[in-house]
Each structure stands twice: as structure tokens, then as C-alpha cells.
Write a structure and sequence with these properties.
The complex is a heterodimer of chains A (170) and B (434). Helices cover 74% and strands 4% of the residues of chain A. Chain A contains six helices and two strands. Chain A has a two-stranded antiparallel sheet. The two termini of chain A are 12 Å apart. Chain B is mainly alpha-helical. Classes of the chains: A mainly alpha (170), B mainly alpha (434). At the A-B interface, helix 1, helix 2, helix 3 and helix 4 of A face helix 1, helix 2, helix 3, helix 4 and helix 12 of B.
């Protein structure tokens, strides 16, 4: 279990790193576009589409498993103070299970959308060219699927922390 | 059309949230279940497969990670570290001068950062120890910064306002300009609170500082000069049309990184942590956005949005009663909900009503962000208060911070009343620059 969780952590880190690269590329690409437009009246025609369809999608969905591992998802903690440790653990496990189911459904649904975009070879019509964008539809299902697997592992981990620790110790 | 399903959906959503299900997961699950109940599983599946991509693949929304990055880089590299010292040079002779300076420093930080948590954390770390050492009652010192931090989300850039603008399909730049108005009014209000306290309760606040300006103060002014000029250039460029609000985020982030590099403050640690914070916040926010977009579709399909707007129109509540109800709902939600969750779960319900009533959505965006920010300092869940406890825990208890913010919350309610009674105090700038 712990070994699987560790593997999930490695995958999650790589995906989060790609998400961070998306942020940096977005910044450089937009700034370059603004500079060229204002200084030399040169337009980069693909900026808006690249930013929206690749950098944004990668930044938003790829780091989800990493967020789950760091337990950074936003939730309402109104009754947290009233929970004992064991109640809290069961509650954590159930919450992770719900998240795993939702992520798995999202992964399945967006995977189908990605396949249909792949088959139709979805592209955007720009002034001077056709820009294929079907690749970008595969980013959400990747992010959701890994997040679903991570949440499932966390569910087991929350329910059997002792087993995980014992394994870790051995 | 079946508004009952919509009501049941809202009920289940509230239950899931109270059971600690993350806001995003609860929104997505309820919307999927609700649309399945109304139209069947195939249309629900269709919405589930399209919404994540279509919500996130948005050019306007790219301002969110960019402005987040700008704020985090400025914070981690210490470019804003001299703000408090610089404000003190000018303002320390006022009654409650140090606290007034801290409000000004928060306002300055707000022009770099789009979040109130970052603002409260950054200023709390610097200003609270100094105020306590100077003789301020710790609750007043901590309360000033917890409240002052909320200005971070009012003065542009503001992440809440960008997301509001996208959801309400209104101009982000216009909401930003409105944010300048509410930010300045709030800052003035908070300064009046501090001056009032120091006049009527001199036991809580030390006597006025009459010492001459120190060398340190002069150095601080020089230290914040570069970031001040950068912010002026970015907002000047944005409001003059050289680049859009979306592009301003990227230009601002790059400018801040370059400035940090030139001033020798850019380290591997700074840039790594800025990126980690940006990716974390962006991911957590956007998945809630996806959920809220699905929830909007669900409420639309159920006919609840239409039902509520015709109900409000039929009840003939009038502007003041309607706004009173909305304010009370946000104040109640703000006591336990985090602002993005509270905003995105309620906008699908309120926006159709406001559109039907002909209320300006730019104005409402400013008001809604202000109301959500009050929620950041009200008990039991006041995120800014927790942050203050985190960075200045050895000076104050949670209860003391909540006691300290009380006069500021009262001022906030006055500001809200003012903005509702006289909408032009917020709208004159956006109207002028339209």
C-alpha cells in the first residue's frame, strides 16, 4: 500500500511539475505577444489558443492528484473541532472515497470526449492557418484518472493507517 | 422544468458540504445527479464530459494563475517588505500612527497581490510584533492586520473579481476599476476606526510618535520604490488599453520576477515556492469553478433560476429588501465558508435574479467581493484571523484577534450600507473610464 502511495506521489509530482511549466510558459508567451505587438506591431496568432487550450488545461488538471496528496482541496470545516481522532479518520476516508468516485466519473467522461475529438481531429480556424487542438483534450482525463487512483489509495490509507505504518517500518 | 429538483439539489449540496466533502466534488456530484434525474444519464454524461475543458480552456481566466504568480513572487522575494516601514515615515505622527501605517501597507500590498490571505500573512509578520512592542494592545494590532488584509482582494488585481467577471460575463477591467473605489473606501474606513480608538480608548493605543524620520525609514521608501513603479506601469498599461486585464497578469508576473532578479532577491527557493503556491491555488480554484459551472447548468435546467427570479419579481421586494436578503445570506455563508466556494455556489442562483431586476453586474461584483471578504474575519471560520494567529501566534490568541476585528466589521457593515444606498460611490470610476 505504502509503496503504491509512494509511486502515486512520484507521478503526482511529475504532473504538478508539468502544471508549473504551464504557468511559466503562459507568462513568457503572453508577455512576448504583448511586447512584439506594442514594439514592432507583430502579432503571434496562436497565443490565445495556446494559452487557453494547452497551458491553462495542463495547469488546472494535471496537478489535481498532487493537491489531493497534500490535502489542499477546499472544504467546509464547520464541525471539525467536534470530531474525535477516529471519527475524523473515518470521515477523511469517506471524503476521499467520494472524491475518487467523482474523479473516476470525470476521467471516464472526459476520456470519451478526448477520443471523439481525436477521431474528428478537432482544430481551430485561425486567420492564416488551421491549428490542431485535439491533443489538449487528453490532458483532463489524465489528471482526473491519476487523481481518482490517488484518492482511492488515500481512502485505504486513512482506514488502515496502522497497516501502512507497519509496512513502512518493515 | 422542475424547480423542486433544484431545491432538493441545494439541500443535498449543503449536507455534503457539512459532511466535509470538498466544495468542488460536492458541486459536481449534485449537478450530475440532478441532471440525470431531470434529463437522463446521457445528457448528464455529456455535460460532465464537456464542462471541465470548456470552463478552463479560457483566455480571460488565464489572468488567475498569472496574478497569483505575481503576488507570490513579490511576497516570497520580499519586494513588498519595506511597505510598512515606508508608510510609517509619512503616517506615524497620526493618532494610532503605526496601525494606520499598517492599513496603508496592506493597501499597497493589495496592488501587487490578488488575495487577502497573502496580504494578511505578509503584513502580520512584519507589523504585529512592532505594534505590540510600541505599546498597542495585541488584539488591536492583530485586528487591524486581519481586517487590513481583506483590502488585498478589493484593490486590483483580485482573483475573486476575475472569476466573478468570467461567471457574470461582465468586464473584468470594469470590476477591477470598481474595486479601486471600494478598496480606498475600506482603507479610509479602517483608518477612521483606528483613529477613533486612539481618541476614545487611549489605553489601548500608545501615545503619538513624534520622533524625526530615521535613516531606516528613508531606506524603506527607496526599497519599495521599484515595485511601486512596476505596479503603476502595469495598471497604467491596463487601464490605458496598452494591454488587457488578462495580459496584465502575465506582464506583471514577468516584471516582478525580473525586478526580483535585478534587485538580487530572486533565489531558487523563492521561485520554486512561488510556483508551488500558484499551482496549488490555481488547481484548487479551477476545479471548484468547474463544479460551479455544472451547478449553474443544473439549476438552469431544473428551472429553479427562472422560478426564483420570477418569484423575486412577483414578490416585488424592491431594491433595498432584495439587497438586504442577499447581504444577510453572504454574511451567514461567510461565517463558515471560504469565499470562492461561497461565491461560486451562490452566483448561479443570484445572477439571473439580478439580471432580471436590472442591477449592474459590475457593481454587484464589487459588492459581492466586499461581502465575502467580511466573511474572512468573522467567527467561527475567519481565514484571515487564522493566518494572523499562524504568523503572530505568540502575541495573541484566536479569541483576541476576533475581538480585535469587531470594530472593523462594524465599519465594514457601514461601508456595505453606503455602497448599497449610494451605488455611485463605487460606480463613478468605472462609468468615467468606460
Amino acid at each position: 500500500m505504502t509503496a503504491l502511495l509512494r509511486l502515486a506521489a512520484v507521478v503526482a509530482r511529475i504532473l504538478a511539475f508539468i502544471g508549473a511549466a504551464g504557468v511559466v510558459l503562459m507568462m513568457v508567451h503572453i508577455s512576448l505577444d504583448v511586447a512584439l505587438r506594442n514594439l514592432f506591431r507583430i502579432a503571434i496568432p496562436v497565443t490565445a489558443e495556446m494559452v487557453a487550450r494547452y497551458y491553462m488545461v495542463a495547469t488546472a488538471f494535471l496537478p489535481l492528484s498532487w493537491l489531493e496528496l497534500r490535502r489542499e482541496m477546499v472544504s467546509v470545516e464547520l464541525f471539525e473541532f467536534a470530531m474525535t481522532r477516529s471519527v475524523r479518520r473515518v470521515s477523511d476516508a469517506l471524503v476521499c472515497l467520494v472524491s475518487a468516485i467523482v474523479y473516476a466519473s470525470l476521467a471516464w467522461a472526459t476520456w470519451n470526449a478526448a477520443l471523439s475529438n481525436f477521431r474528428s481531429g478537432t482544430y481551430v480556424e485561425l486567420a492564416s492557418m488551421k491549428m490542431p487542438v485535439w491533443h489538449s483534450f487528453f490532458l483532463p482525463p489524465v489528471g482526473f484518472a491519476i487523481a481518482a487512483a490517488t484518492c482511492l489509495l488515500l481512502t485505504f490509507h486513512d482506514l488502515h493507517p496502522a497497516a501502512s505504518h507497519a509496512e513502512e517500518a518493515s | 422544468m422542475n424547480p423542486e429538483v433544484g431545491f432538493v439539489g441545494i439541500g443535498i449540496l449543503i449536507i455534503l458540504l457539512l459532511l466535509r466533502v470538498p466544495v468542488a466534488m460536492a458541486l459536481i456530484a449534485v449537478s450530475f445527479g440532478g441532471i440525470t434525474a431531470l434529463l437522463g444519464v446521457t445528457p448528464a454524461f455529456g455535460i460532465l464530459s464537456n464542462t471541465p475543458y470548456s470552463f478552463v480552456a479560457s483566455w480571460t481566466m488565464s489572468a488567475v494563475p498569472m496574478f497569483l504568480l505575481m503576488g507570490f513572487v513579490a511576497f516570497h522575494s520580499g519586494l513588498t517588505g519595506g511597505l510598512f516601514a515606508a508608510a510609517k515615515v509619512v503616517l506615524r505622527r497620526l493618532p494610532g500612527g503605526l496601525a494606520v501605517s499598517s492599513i496603508f501597507a496592506c493597501s499597497g500590498f493589495a496592488a501587487v497581490s490578488g488575495s487577502s490571505l497573502a496580504c494578511a500573512a505578509a503584513m502580520g509578520r512584519i507589523a504585529i510584533p512592532e505594534m505590540v512592542a510600541a505599546g498597542y494592545r495585541p488584539s488591536i494590532a492583530a485586528g487591524s492586520i486581519a481586517a487590513g488584509g481583506t483590502i488585498g482582494a478589493l484593490i486590483p488585481p483580485s482573483i475573486l473579481m476575475i472569476i466573478y467577471g468570467v461567471f457574470a460575463e461582465t468586464s473584468v477591467t470594469q470590476v477591477f476599476i470598481g474595486g479601486v473605489g471600494i478598496g480606498v473606501i475600506t482603507a479610509i474606513g479602517y483608518c477612521l476606526v483606528i483613529i477613533g480608538i486612539s481618541l476614545f480608548r487611549p489605553d489601548l493605543v500608545p501615545a503619538r510618535d513624534t520622533s524625526p524620520v530615521s535613516e531606516e525609514g528613508r531606506a524603506a521608501i527607496l526599497q519599495v520604490m521599484p515595485i511601486t513603479i512596476l505596479v503603476l506601469l502595469i495598471f497604467g498599461g491596463m487601464f490605458s488599453g496598452l494591454f488587457t486585464a488578462t495580459e496584465a497578469g502575465a506582464v506583471g508576473a514577468l516584471g516582478t520576477i525580473l525586478l526580483a532578479a535585478v534587485t538580487g532577491r530572486l533565489t531558487k527557493w523563492n521561485i520554486t515556492h512561488s510556483l508551488i503556491d500558484t499551482v496549488t491555488s490555481t488547481g484548487a480554484l479551477f476545479i471548484i469553478g468547474v463544479g460551479a459551472a455544472m451547478f449553474t447548468r443544473f439549476l438552469g435546467i431544473s428551472g429553479l433560476s427562472h422560478f426564483l427570479s420570477s418569484f423575486v419579481a412577483g414578490a416585488d421586494l424592491g431594491y433595498f429588501k432584495l439587497m438586504l436578503i442577499i447581504v444577510l445570506i453572504y454574511l451567514a455563508l461567510g461565517t463558515f465558508m471560504e469565499p470562492f466556494g461561497a461565491m461560486l455556489t451562490t452566483l448561479p442562483i443570484f445572477l439571473p435574479i439580478l439580471r432580471a431586476e436590472g442591477i449592474s453586474l459590475v457593481w454587484f461584483g464589487v459588492v459581492v467581493v466586499k461581502m465575502l471578504e467580511i466573511g474572512m474575519i468573522t467567527p467561527p471560520v475567519g481565514m484571515n484571523v487564522f493566518v494572523i494567529k499562524n504568523v503572530a501566534g505568540k502575541y495573541v490568541s484566536i479569541a483576541q484577534v476576533f475581538a480585535g476585528v469587531l470594530p472593523f466589521i462594524i465599519m465594514d457593515l457601514f461601508v456595505i450600507a453606503l455602497v448599497i444606498a449610494v451605488p455611485s460611490v463605487v460606480m463613478f470610476l468605472p462609468d468615467l473610464l468606460k
